[in-house]
Design goal:
The protein is of the alpha/beta class and 406 residues long. It contains 17 helices and 7 strands. The strands form 2 sheets. A 5-stranded mixed beta sheet has the order 5-4-3-6-7, sandwiched between helices. It has a two-stranded antiparallel sheet with strand order 1-2. A hairpin with a 2-residue loop joins β1 (62-72) and β2. α15 (339-352) crosses α16.
């Protein structure tokens, strides 16, 4: 039975509205009839003669049909798509393959990729949502590769001359290199500009975290226009403060207190950790640096012989551990820890958890850029009492706070 007669029969069997939208019902058959009529006209136009014309002026002729299933608002519809003998010369316009994918679908693919779906998962998802649309994982990868150009432009964009506060930290991933699985660090810089707005200044893929690579990152920031950083909040990586001072000699450096506490507890026996931490709190929670030093001496008297490495770590790094004591509470809360950037790391981990290994550095960079782009969409206003913060920083760093516009 042809489609037209089938539609007429279905129409006669309609008893209520549900029958209109039933499987193989009137609406589905109407969609099928309309689409197949358009496809038939498209092929006629392509071949240059009508379906009923007996003489075929072209060497190319009809060659049967193949089936595709479309998912429409009326449900799944099976479509017969005509084809020609010169395989590949006729491409249906109403049901295009990948080349006909519009920009909105490309954006959807990139968005799904940026939310953590793998290329194979996206391919399966699209096949399920838009049955009949065959997009291979390799083609999806090509679509997402378009992001690399904009990502590299973003990575090289000009920056403000002065950033009141910048947080530096790295997150590690597994990447395939020369047939081996190696650990790579994604070096991330999170800046707070003079208006109090957060901005990821750059994402740099390198070997395991090192102060020498951080030096190259800092050099890049300088080349992109950064002339001054008032306060840098960093983890406890050895040699990192010296790298910062090489490029930005006036910057005050605050080592993350939370990192320091974690590293300290690694060397304390498990049964003593609770007591040690209780004795350590008066050091980093002191209201002044003088009181903190007094409490550090008390800590040394009690634990110095048992854990000299831990105590010496606090004393030897005190210059960068104690910067936050000179500031009021709003600034203290901002700079004493790098938790603000570790929160970004947690969001990145949520997205990358499906990828235990990245095939290339570019694939890692591409995904982290998309994640950072989604994260930063929410950063439109400062969460701190920024007016009070910037006023105090203007006094502490007289003449160095600028309100530049790029």
């Amino acid at each position: 039975m042809n489609t037209e007669k089938q539609s007429q029969k279905t129409f006669l069997n309609i008893q209520n509205l549900d029958d209109l939208f039933a499987e193989n019902g009137f609406i589905q058959n109407l969609v099928k009839s309309t689409v197949e009529t358009i496809l038939k006209s498209e092929l006629e136009d392509h071949l240059g003669y009508s379906y009923r014309q007996k003489k075929e002026p072209s060497s190319n002729r009809r060659n049967g049909s193949y089936k595709k299933t479309l998912k429409t608002s009326a449900g799944k519809v099976n479509i017969e798509i005509p084809r020609d003998r010169e395989r590949g010369s006729y491409e249906p316009k109403i049901l295009p393959k990948y080349e006909g994918i519009n920009s909105k679908l490309e954006e959807s693919i990139i968005s799904l990729y940026g939310k953590g779906m793998t290329t194979r998962e996206i391919s399966s998802h699209l096949e399920e949502m838009y049955l009949g649309m065959e997009i291979s994982p390799s083609l999806i990868s090509k679509i997402t590769d378009k992001v690399l150009e904009s990502a590299k432009e973003w990575q090289s964009r000009p920056l403000y001359e002065v950033y009141p506060i910048v947080f530096f930290d790295a997150i590690h991933f597994k990447v395939r290199k020369d047939g081996k699985i190696v650990s790579k660090a994604a070096y991330i810089c999170l800046g707070i500009n003079s208006d109090g707005i957060k901005d990821i200044l750059g994402i740099y893929i390198g070997e395991n975290e090192s102060s020498s690579f951080w030096l190259s990152v800092l050099t890049d920031l300088q080349n992109r226009g950064v002339q001054d950083i008032l306060i840098a909040s960093i983890d406890g990586l050895k040699g990192f403060p010296e790298s910062i001072k090489t490029i930005f000699p006036k910057t005050e450096i605050q080592t993350c207190i939370v990192h320091q506490i974690r590293n300290s507890l690694k060397y304390v026996g498990s049964k003593y950790q609770k007591e040690f931490l209780s004795n350590l709190k008066p050091v980093y929670q002191a209201t002044t640096e003088e009181l903190a030093l007094e409490n550090l001496n008390n800590l040394e008297e009690k634990w110095g012989k048992q854990y000299p490495v831990v105590i010496n770590s606090w004393k030897n790094n005190w210059e960068t551990l104690s910067i936050y004591f000179k500031y009021s509470e709003p600034i203290k809360k901002m700079i004493y820890t790098t938790n603000i950037i570790e929160n970004i790391h947690r969001q990145m981990r949520k997205v990358t958890k499906n990828r235990s290994i990245f095939p290339t550095d570019d694939s890692l960079f591409k995904l982290l850029y998309l994640v950072s782009r989604d994260i930063s969409k929410k950063w439109t206003t400062p969460k701190w009492n920024w007016g009070q913060v910037i006023s105090q920083l203007s006094i502490h760093f007289e003449g160095r706070v600028k309100f530049d516009l790029i």
